[in-house]
């Protein structure tokens, strides 16, 4: 897991309130108050005023990992469950191919840079059926492209970690009545320059074969539970400074699990340019500084602040694999019923089917419904999916917050997603850092297409229903309070 080590540094631009009709007025958060009002709209959480007028500027993260992400193109092929080398649940062990089975393929790649069927192996129905695994076979498999995004790890290498690896979900042959689209293969081909200390490691299921310069160096064949394999390239008689090749082949052969993790320390040749990391900030009413408003250096670009004042459950981020939802409701300090972020829920395929819920201080934090992080400070880790650190922070997300201590929660999640939460008495302030997702995304944080102009509330609402349906809700009980609350401006205020 990637770990957060003081990566968040947040700041707000502060400005002194202006005057209207010659009268100096205090920002009263978009509401009529004591004979004066302002067109700013920031939650009055504790009955206090604030001089924060400008939208927040996020100094993003002290570690600039956006320049280090590496995208590697892969080829995936989807099969039907009735292919002779693939299995249904009732066809489990004992039997051919089950367990860790070595010797399924020959020690050398074929001239087409593909694995060669081993006649004495017990992994496949026949050489003809295996030949379809990594070659296009119309009517038998469906070819597609997949981009694997590797993130820097703490050992100076790169990691791709996906506990629910289903790149064909919603595509190709479909799930065939199962929760996910199983029964597929994947191949990845990498050119690199060998330097001493180079390594390659894999953990997952099912079959995996790794070749360096055409020779088999990792053999995790068979239909099995997650297995580990590691190779030190220093043991392969490679010549420092010379180019070499790595060929990786994977198969998911039965509808049980699909875990996939690669750790590698390789000097890649001509690696594709990374997509930038962006940050979304949720604070107050809740207001949102969308992903496309702040670049990877924390500078505001074409700022777009999207406000939602209604009550209920809303999509903060929604993609094929990532689901982040917010529960927005009024608090005792809200004015005119406008809402605050009372809780967030994180789930989806990238969480391996698990759900993490974080509520304000008057609630709790739960993992699959079980209370966690009940002590302060404390930490929590689960299945290489989430690393959570609950501790005191030096600076709040919202600089207008003056209460101490600051109860901060830092989350390190799959796909390089990082989240910081400030837990207050009745509401949350939240930072989410991520990169654009394959297949797109949208929600209250915007669509992360590097263009802030299309991330207004109206345009986001035209693209999707921001409200979470009861069937899609990650919360144990869907919100029953779904009141719409209208934003107020100076025009709504009674004259003095």
Give an account of the 3D structure:
With 496 residues, the chain is mainly β. The protein contains 2 helices and 30 strands.
Oligomeric state, counting identical vs distinct chains: single chain
How many angstroms separate the termini? 58 Å
Detail the poorly predicted runs. Answer: 1-67
Rg calculated over all Cα atoms? 26 Å
What is the general shape? Answer: elongated
Summarize the biggest pleated sheet. 11 strands, antiparallel
Instruction: Quote the average pLDDT.
Output: 79
What layout of secondary structure does this protein have?
Blueprint: E1 8-12, E2 19-20, E3 23-24, E4 56-61, E5 70-79, H1 127-131, E6 141-152, E7 158-162, E8 184-193, E9 199-204, E10 208-212, E11 215-220, E12 227-232, E13 243-252, E14 260-265, E15 267-268, E16 278-283, E17 287-289, E18 305-307, E19 312-319, E20 323-329, E21 340-347, E22 356-359, E23 365-367, E24 370-372, E25 378-382, E26 386-393, E27 406-412, E28 418-423, E29 428-434, E30 441-442, H2 457-463
Antiparallel strand pairs: 1-4, 2-3, 5-6, 5-8, 6-7, 7-14, 8-13, 8-15, 9-12, 9-14, 10-11, 10-13, 16-17, 16-29, 17-18, 19-20, 19-30, 20-21, 21-22, 22-23, 23-24, 25-26, 26-27, 27-28, 28-29
Features:
35% strand, 2% helix, elongated, 2 helices, mainly beta, 496 residues, eleven-stranded antiparallel beta sheet, 30 strands, eight-stranded antiparallel beta sheet, single chain
């Amino acid at each position: 897991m990637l770990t957060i080590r003081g990566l968040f540094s947040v700041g707000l631009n502060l400005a002194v309130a202006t005057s209207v009709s010659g009268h100096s007025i205090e920002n009263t958060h978009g509401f009529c108050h004591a004979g004066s009002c302002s067109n700013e709209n920031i939650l009055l959480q504790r009955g206090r005023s604030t001089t924060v007028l400008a939208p927040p500027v996020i100094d993003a993260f002290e570690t600039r990992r956006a320049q280090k992400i590496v995208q590697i193109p892969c080829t995936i092929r989807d099969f039907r469950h009735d292919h002779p080398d693939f299995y249904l649940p009732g066809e489990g062990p004992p039997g051919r191919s089950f367990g860790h089975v070595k010797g399924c393929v020959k020690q050398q790649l074929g001239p087409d840079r593909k694995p060669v069927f081993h006649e004495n192996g017990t992994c496949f129905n026949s050489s003809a059926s295996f030949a379809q695994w990594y070659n296009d076979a119309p009517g038998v498999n469906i070819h597609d492209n997949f981009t694997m995004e590797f993130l820097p790890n703490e050992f100076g290498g790169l990691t791709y970690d996906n506990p629910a690896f289903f790149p064909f979900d919603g595509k190709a042959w479909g799930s065939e009545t199962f929760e996910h689209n199983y029964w597929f293969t994947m191949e990845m081909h990498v050119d690199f320059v060998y330097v001493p200390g180079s390594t390659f490691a894999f953990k997952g299921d099912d079959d995996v074969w790794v070749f360096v310069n055409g020779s088999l160096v990792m053999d995790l064949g068979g239909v099995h539970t997650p297995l580990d394999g590691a190779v030190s390239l220093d043991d392969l008689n490679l010549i420092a400074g010379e180019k070499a090749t790595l060929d990786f082949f994977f198969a998911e052969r039965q509808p049980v699990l699909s875990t996939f993790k690669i750790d590698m320390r390789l000097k890649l040749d001509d690696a594709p340019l990374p997509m930038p990391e962006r940050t979304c900030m949720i604070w107050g009413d809740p207001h949102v500084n969308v992903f496309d408003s702040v670049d990877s250096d924390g500078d505001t670009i074409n700022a777009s602040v999207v406000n939602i004042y209604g009550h209920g459950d809303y999509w903060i981020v929604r993609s094929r694999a990532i689901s982040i939802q917010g529960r927005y409701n009024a608090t005792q300090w809200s004015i005119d019923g406008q809402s605050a972020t009372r809780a967030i829920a994180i789930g989806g395929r990238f969480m391996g089917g698990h759900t993490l819920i974080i509520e304000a201080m008057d609630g709790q934090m739960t993992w699959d419904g079980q209370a966690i992080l009940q002590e302060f400070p404390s930490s929590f880790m689960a299945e290489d999916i989430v690393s959570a650190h609950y501790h005191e922070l030096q600076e709040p997300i919202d600089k207008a917050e003056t209460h101490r201590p600051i109860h901060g929660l830092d989350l390190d999640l799959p796909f390089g997603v990082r989240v910081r939460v400030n837990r207050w008495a009745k509401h949350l302030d939240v930072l989410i850092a991520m990169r654009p997702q394959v297949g797109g995304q949208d929600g209250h944080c915007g669509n992360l297409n590097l263009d802030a102009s299309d991330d207004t509330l109206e345009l986001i609402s035209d693209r999707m229903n921001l409200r979470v349906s009861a069937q899609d809700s990650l919360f144990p009980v869907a919100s029953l309070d779904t009141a719409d609350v209208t934003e107020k401006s100076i025009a709504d205020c009674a004259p003095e």
